[in-house]
Amino acid sequence: MTVFxxxxxxxxxxxxxxxxxxxxxxGARADVQNSLNVxxxxxxxxGSLKQTVHGVTAQLHLAGSACNxxxxxxxxxxxxxxxETETRLHVNIFDTAEQQFTxxxxxxxxxxxxxxxxxxxxxxxxxxxxxISSPFAFWITRRSDPSAPPIFDTRVGSLPPxxxxxxxxxxxxxxxxxxFNLVFEDQYLQLTSALPYDANIYxxxxxVSSSGFRRSVTQNGTLQTLWARDDAxxxxxxxxxxxxxxxxxxxxxxSNKSQSHGVFLSNSAGSDIMLATPPSSNTxxxxxxxxxxxxxxYFFSGPDPNSVIEQYGQVVGLPAWQPSWGFGFHLCRWGxxxxxxxxxxxxxxxxxxxxxxxxxxxxxxxxxxxxxxxDPGSFPGxxxxxxxxxxxxxxxxxxxxxxxxxxxxxxxxxxxxxFTRGTDLDxxxxxxxxxxxxxxxxxGYTVFPDWFAPNAEQWWTEALTNWSTGGVEFSGLWLDMxxxxxxxxxxxxxxxxxxxxxxxxxxxxxxxxxxxxxxxPEGYNSTISGTSGNITVNGTLTYGAGxxxxxxGGLAKRSILFxxxxxxxxxxxxxxNAPPYAIHNGFGAxxxxxxxxxxxxxxxxxxxDTHNFYGYMEERATNLALRQIHPGQRPFLIxxxxxxxxxxxxxxxxxxxxxxxxxxxxxxxxxxxxxxxxIPMVGADTCGFMxxxxxxxxxxxxxxxxxxxxxxxxxxxxxxxxxxxxxxxVANASRTAIAVRYSMLPYxxxxxxxxxxxxxxPVRALxxxxxxxxxxxxxxxxFMIGSAIxxxxxxTPNVSTVDGLFPGRGAVTxxxxxxxxxxxxxxxxxVSLSAPLGHIPVHIRSGSAILLHSKPGYTTSESAQSPxxxxxxxxxxxxxxxxxxxxxxxxxxxxxxxVKNSTLQFHAAGKSVSIAKRGDYNAPQDLAQVTVLGVAxxxxxxxxxxxxxxxxxxxxxxxxxxLQLSGLxxxxxxxxxISWR
Length: 981
What we know:
With 981 residues, the protein is of the alpha+beta class. Among the domains are: 44-316, Sandwich (Immunoglobulin-like); 747-980, Sandwich (Immunoglobulin-like), CATH 2.60.40. The chain contains 14 helices and 49 strands. A nine-stranded antiparallel beta sheet has the order 1-2-3-4-17-14-13-10-11, with helices on one face. Strands 29-28-27-24-20-19-18-31-30 form a nine-stranded parallel beta sheet. Helix 9 links the parallel strand 28 and strand 29 (682-683). It is globular and about 90 Å long.
């Protein structure tokens, strides 16, 4: 959850023992330098170049007088170029003295550099490194076409300053391109690369982007700030996660062919990344501006989008194995005030026959809002244990919230073991003077785990174990507020001496008398339909005619003049609290609504350097803890703040969105972003979190979200209840959509197995699969599940049709999921599809073979007990192919303990479908049904394994060219062939 109102009182600003001070005067920050002042920076010249088996090394020296624009120029740098694989090139520019911050290797798995005895790909790599010596610049080309425009090109140092401000306004000179030479200072790094005009760029986030999945390079450009912050999904600003990776897709009009590549900057510093095109220019630019660290760049050759994403996964880590139950439907809200209310939701869902896999609790669960507790009056431990075990007996699961801040106790009578034990083990974040850093979150005053502390993971595991054995027997965990969020500006004070007696939450919560939730979706008219969100009157659909509501922003922006001193982590002459270059953080000051940037971690690390991966460290520690609590089982985690590599430990939800149609649309781009970021288990708060939803929006959203990986309905305290049983039309739409989802579970499961083993994205933009069709490059109102399923959701109110593109330009046949009718899509134009309320268009790609559950049940385990069915959609030449990955769905594969598994392959050709199995895991159910689409003529005989199928067990429907077989009992473990003549 996000804080919805401004902190009522700010505590003292100094990170020293003190009493609370008066609130400081609001005003402009005096220390911000709005002028870039880098046009005179001399760049570097190259020397001492050495060829190695796997690349080159060299020294870089300042090419002139230091400009010291935003810190001290570092005179001597080292360049390392390593051809790591055939498809990956690593270019690392770092200070020769190695004093700049880099990611601690103990916590991040990056590929080891090839050894001196490893086979060299220097002369066979798909990519080539090129350079000029003075001023030093480099560019990366494809070996197959070295004369083509480079995929990355820093040879722009000779260009004059370009004083444009495409992002904000002309008075903010930070948004100008002012100097292009390499700048490498202790508190400011700058690197610029040329791009093709209006390049197709995807990634760089996390962001709710008004331009959609494709980032804007012309017109207003893109200003992507990377500084993790707790804000409720604002447009075009930095939010929860930090991902400095992008995919570029280039189309050659001469050959009508495309190629993709990727660029990843491995750096955790707060930063601005700018994409823009200067006026009257035919060249665009990307410019990195970083508050520290090094320039550690990876280049991926692709050449197609899916390959780029896979290659990125090899660097940051492949996604975690997901338990099969994680693909079920999840339900939560902030406002389930006691266990009886939670039990009521479970019962109501079953009464309505709407499948419910996982029940969640928000912070209502806690005693005094403290982690690792349940309120003894509202959620007694024994009753919680009984409730959760009852869920488990029915194949259902339970997940509670877990905030990153730990409650602080100020007196001996207030016994809170996680705080006491953490203090004994010395696991909490410190001020520069080694006193405990005090923040303020939901429990009042808090402390924060320092994940670098030697005992932190032990303490965290103990606390989680005690919580589980105390009654909250969770199946997985929900990590919230881990950007990290704190309501004080700086440390709230340091004990002893600070007044920490007032533990009340310093914010107004939604639903309180002075913070009523009154907004509705665009198009909703409460004068017609009332305040219930219901758009049906006496069973008749009535669309609202009200004006569109405006989007709701997050916290009011404010900047505060403050300085808490220098010298944290034994550094000197470094401004940790207000770096000379001010990135475009949405809250202004870097410490606003989070930790002070000179908060100190074990080993001398400071928050300025580590802030962006605080959530990653918590996710890693939590995943490792769950492996101990549930030995041998796959941890299921959903987290808010993310960083490169998070997908190895956790999934993600798209944060505190709003119940608006616009956020229904943004959710698609959000899901696609995180496929690129290698965090594929992702989804939005269905029906919206903030404000009131209504029947129509919730209907459409429950349908769309059923086709995204993480599927959870969740809303805020004080808003209208939005459980899917609340409206008959939403209940009907949900049952239909979830039935499709649960029938597709073997397909989803296979896609995620491919993600965990190869890095292949389960959800894909249309151009991922059809890279040579330019009309698809900006499409983000449709998406694909794997290579076989196309989803075209309704994203606007008051309509009963939706337009969709059908890729393939006539070479691909698209068939309706429900009716199996073929779409007439011989051109690249849009097709109007019928989409009355309660229906979401879904289409199957020809050439696909998909294993399904024949009878989707109330839970994923119940669905898995039904026999399998096989859906085959033949291509125009009568062929099709598909695979299905099978294992037990819960056991965690490790290097030491591989899991029994099998892969089924389905091949269609020459009027037959063959089934083959590879692996030692036996399919638990037989194949009972087979549907083949695209059978042009009525068969006279159908055989399975060479034996004729009785005439009553197969049906041919000429209108849709469909052959259906039923009543089968084919063992998938033995394979076989299904033929027709």
